[in-house]
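Support case: user asked for a sample of complex input and structure output to validate their parser. Sending the pair below.
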Amino acid sequence: MSVGRDALREFWASKVSKMGVALLVLLVVVSVYVVLTYPLDFGLRYWNNPAYWADNPKAVPPEWWNLFTDKKLPPHVIKDFHEPSDVRDQRGRRILEYVYSFDFQYDEFPSFLSISLNNVTFSSRRPPRVEIFLDRPDNISVRLLRFTVTGPRPGEEAPYFRYVEAPNRVRITGDKNVFSALSAMLKKYYGLSIRPSEVGEIGAEKVAFGEPSGDGFKVLRGRYVLRAVVTGYDEDVDVGMLRMVVGGRVYGFSGTDTLGRDLAVGLLFGFPIALLIGFLTSTVTTIIGAITGVISGYMGGKVDTGIQRLSDIILNIPLLPILIFFTFVLGTEIPRLWVIIAILIAFSWPSLTIVVRPMVLQIRESQFVEAAVAIGAPRLWIMFRHIFPQVAPFVFAQLIFFTPSAILAEAALSFLGLGDPSMPTWGQILETGFRSGGVYIGYWWWVLPPGLLIVFAAITFVLIALGLEPVVNPRLRRMK
Amino acid sequence: MGVLRTIGIRALTLIGVVIAVLLMLVIVLGVTGLSDKMLKAIADQILMEIRQGLAREIKDPEALKAAIEQQRMEIYAAFGLDKPWYARIPDMVVRVMTFDLGYTRTIKSFTGSQRVADIIWERLPNTILLVTTAIAISAVLGLIIGVKVATRPGSRLDRVASYFSAISFALPTWWTGIIFIFVFAFYFRLFPFGGMYSAPPPEEPLARFLDLLWHAALPVTTLVVALVGSWIYVTRTIVLNTAQEDFVAAARAKGLPESVVRRRYIIRVAAPPILTNIVLGLAGSIGGAIITETVFQWPGMGSLYYQAIFSLEENLIIALTFIFTVVYVAARFILEILYIVLDPRVRY
């Protein structure tokens, strides 16, 4: 036992190991948090479901980017109303009014405007009408859009429920009627004749939040009021939730990709997956490697020759091409993550076998093994009671050393487009960023963080392995 | 004789590796039914040409149908499609070895050919150029820095080199490449984003060579950053270990100058194990090359992999997996010979 404690002290003495352990604790804590809070089918249900991210701005940098730029970029604002701001009855109609007033003092236009309605209930045959108004700082008020909720179908009984399963989402800045409204506004207040289709080309958000200046539009700063007015023809009219979104030019902690996915969420999900791949692969690999090494060294003879030949051949096969081949061919039937892990294990264990074997050869000659043989201990007993404990520290160090290479291999495959599509990994996020040309347009927030995290995870294990090395290899220790 | 015998044994092992990989590829293809699919595609292409000829000669639709069916049976039999996959193993092995895997669906060679073999042969030199340059540069740098560091263990230089090799090990190659693109191509506009030559390439040989250098700078540096860390680390560890041997102490005790001790007693002895470790790292450089090529769109076999995966060209992927194994085994064989030259002990 004291040997173990000494080794531990020796390990803990170096700064490198302390740093490695600290990083590992961080990795594990984040992973545990993710496993506890994320649904297991996160990849399929949310990450790869564009509808879930529809209300997010596309390909915008993180919010803290504002600290580094001269231009002040508007943040993303989502305003949810569970109750209307004002309810009034007018000539037998019930009017629900939702008002969002905000001060817009930024150097860029919002990326879009949208409104969604959830759980609309009414009981008159005439369905409620929805109108969206924008009051601008220059006292111009525009009715951007008017539409009616889907009316009752023949034979349907009141009360009528609408937009229960999926919200009715209207992207205001992409709507043709809005273009017309804005075109009319420009004509009336600025004397400009710009056709609705041209408003669409300029960008409705620029017209709505700007004023003509020179050839284009510049941001009109000041207080805006976005109003949604729902006019019902009965007293039961109700809107479960109304959401207004003023699309930002920056978003959250890590920005978004071109589908509007919150990168922070995907990157967090990568933590437990990286750890799973790393630990599972390295553990099984070292177990197989250690067992074959011990058997090969202790048994000798034909078994030894067989294992050595097999190891020799496997070690001479370049790993990445084989991984690509197997993942490509088998990945359609079996989840790719498992194919990757299995192939990594199948082609990595011999590198441990060939280093454990000579150690075992040496231990086999020692007196305590001879003593065990003399008292008639069975071979299996000797191998696992007497020989294995001698090589165990070395094997453990190898386990740590192996972990980053498994993480890196998965990332490399994901980067080549062979990642498991059912869950996001760091390599896959990097790959989508690279494939959609993020590098050439300068989407640094999309391409740099996943790589940084892969490096971070790999460095963690490299540091621990470096700290373990003088413990396992005493010769290096003497040099200090 | 002894040298030849040793080389012969190594050659046999490496040939064994190639055969093992070949068999593995063919068996996996057979079990998953992919080999059937590929052979059928080739056979159907031939059948289509025959059908056009037959249609001109035979006018009766019934007779034409029968004749085509007859031809189809014959061609399928010629390709062994009437037999189960395991009966076709020898035939498939030969096919993979000669890249006789039919035609691609969309990917074309630079000259416009869609034959798998044409596409591969055209790109092989580009990959070899990139990888050998990078390996040569990292070998020279790694040996110089590694030995230098090992002579002053614990110094600041030593610590910097240790940290650097740890980072170099953990840095995924493609990410380094992406950062380089960001900094040197996107931000400073010093180097091109990728490719091998400007479009159109310069006519004059010197200008063409300089253009190639300009395009190769970033990918080669990326690979060197990925590879040099392990060279430094391995060199340092082995030189440090050798420096503690008794015969080194004895040489110093004899009063030999430090430079002689280092050159003849330490480095000469440390060289073979360093080489062994480098040989083991060769597979890593192949992997790094595949990804570096992809990032920089270097028109080699690695970026071809990426395109083949994207457009689901299974015959290209098989051919590439095989050729990468062959390239690796060949490189390994050259290093083995070098090893025999360096270490007289293994000759006999």
